[in-house]
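Continuing from yesterday's entry. The apo prediction looked reasonable, so today I'm repeating it with flavin-adenine dinucleotide included to see how the binding region is handled. Same sequence as before; SMILES copied from the compound registry.
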Amino acid sequence: MRRIDTDILILGSGGAGLFAALHAQAGAPGLRITVAVKGLLGKCGCTRMVQGGYNVALAQGDSVERHFMDTIEGGKWLSNQDLAWTLVTRAVERIRELENELGCFFDRNPDGTLKQKAFAGQTFDRTVHKGDQTGIEIINRLAEQVWARGIARLEEHRAVEFVMARDGGRLAGVLMIDMRSGEFVFVRAQAVLLATGGGPTMYKYHTPSGDKSCDGMAMALRAGLTLRDMEMVQFHPTGLLAGTHTRMTGTVLEEGLRGAGGYLIGADGERFMQRYDERAERATRDIVSRSMFRELRAGNATPNGGVWLRMDHLGPDSVRQRFKGMVERCADCGFDLAGGQVEVVPTAHYMMGGVMFEADCSTTVPGLFVAGEDAGGVHGANRLGGNGVANSTVFGGIAGEVLAQWVPRNARSVEPDEAQIERAVARCKEPLGRPAGDLEPIREALYELMWRDVGIIRDSEGLLRARDALVEIGAQLDRTGVDGRDLRFNLSWHDWLNLQNLTLVSRAITESALMRENSRGAHFREDFPEPGDLDTSEYMCLSLRDGAFETSRRRVQFTRVKPGQSLLDNTANAAAAADAGTRAGAGGGAGGATASAAPMK
Ligand SMILES: Cc1cc2nc3c(=O)[nH]c(=O)nc-3n(C[C@H](O)[C@H](O)[C@H](O)COP(=O)(O)OP(=O)(O)OC[C@H]3O[C@@H](n4cnc5c(N)ncnc54)[C@H](O)[C@@H]3O)c2cc1C
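Holo prediction written out below.
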């Protein structure tokens, strides 16, 4: 087994991983920093796929308080409010950094200010973007900087297990597989950042990149960490339906299309969203996805089982200009988005749940930090479009700063638990010792099960059925072998490992969904359709002990604002008071849209 030593090991090269690498290096240039990634750095993960943009309160009339309130209300009061506050306040400095230090070009208004567009579920147009290819702009600029700064890279290396120190007190490193050779690699590190970006690819229709299979969450579960909000899987309403023969099916057509005034139309030729929500197509993702699912169940479905998205009433030329990337993507699949209609279906997009963490990105395991979509608690029951990339870049940057301080203070010689490494290697090699089987039916069974029973509309009957079926899928996987004669780029082997992780995390989603006997945000129980009492809101937690889940419910701490209150009231009051003071000749603060609102207890 190859062994590598580093000071800081970062798993993943999305917005979280790359920002962490740059900030860690800036904070402690003498430390050895290694980014390990399942694909090629700069070419994989979901940050690169960000289309719509980045939420940040910059414009006149907007405020971090307003962004915060949208985030909390969108999250149905389940968010960790301190994490959400960190998100909205630090997003302001992060977008400046992206522009002024990293060189991103975002779209601008004629007066030179940043152009910010409407995204569903928000009370202000605050989404910064570069056309509909915002993620490519961000990741290209980040990757260039990482390449230029002598940060070590382990590309096409997949992380498989966290390894504790022999004395058990802290993390010692990560076991990885070099996918190019099939060789196991142990990377010893003083500290590790988990930034593998979740990704609900266990659903029949899904948007995330193919390299994502919830590896980090599964590793965290196997390491005994607690995950929260795992029932909260966000479906994006407009996944492209391009047929079963192409992986383009499920890819997302961005939210800005609905924000700009796009229509959703059933097979009967009628718009239907007004029947479900007064905001119609501009309602939040959960409401639109659920409404579409209901239409599909009621038989109002297009030939391939979706609904139509139409933009032509906005003027085909204008649509072509504003949504160039989307129009081209649809054209590649034979559809005319600007002038015709495109079949769409809700598609699994984002996991609000993840590893429990503090605002400094630390976890309960010393030496292990987490950021981005692997981390839970920022978004509560629903992530606002545009808050995902803000989340990964904000917390990735924070993690880098913290790691730069943590490692020098806590550095010591850590020896890994060799027995744990051996057990992990044996687990990964399990399928290689059995006759090769077909993984396709197992994947299809998982896709269908999760879409039907643990998807957009849930009930206890379906969830209990899924609980049993997932055990059976796991057992089927355990019986299925993989041809192990050549381990170089052995994609069947990696597929097997992906499915093992996806099945484990699917079980976590199902258990959490069973626990939550109410309906909030992305989680809708037909047998418990009410949201429950907001004042006594609880979030669901689970961890793995000896192969079984230990579950608990914890009360949400409303550290800044309580249900029924708003930080905007404070802002408005402060502004009014400042205004009154100025009129009385007392001078004083400007009030209004600042990041300085005192926390409400
Ligand atoms: C199509 C699409 C459009 C989106 N549009 C928007 C938008 O407009 N606005 C918005 O705010 N959010 C959007 N999002 C969500 C946004 O992309 C994510 O919230 C965010 O980018 C996640 O960042 P991350 O760094 O946590 O993960 P990612 O960017 O996904 O990076 C994860 C990294 O981990 C690596 N990895 C995975 N497993 C392993 C392993 N076992 N070992 C080593 N490396 C591993 C991956 O290869 C990848 O490099 C979109 C998502 C998708 C899929």
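Comparison notes:
- The chain has a mean pLDDT of 92.
- Residues 491-515 form the longest helix (25 residues).
Will overlay with the apo model tomorrow.
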